[in-house]
Amino acid sequence: MSKEIWLIRHGESTANAGLATKDASSIALTDKGWHQAREMAEKFSAAPDLIVVSPYLRARQTAGPTAERFADTPIETWPVQEFTYLSPVRCANTTVEQRRPLVDAYWKACDPSLIDGPGAESFAQMLDRVREAARRIEASPARTMAIFTHGHIMQAWRLLANNPAASDKTDMERFLTAFQARPIENCEWLSGAAYEKVARS
Question: What does each C-alpha distance from 79 to 15, 23, 115, 131 come to in angstroms?
Answer without folding.
Answer: 20, 17, 18, 11
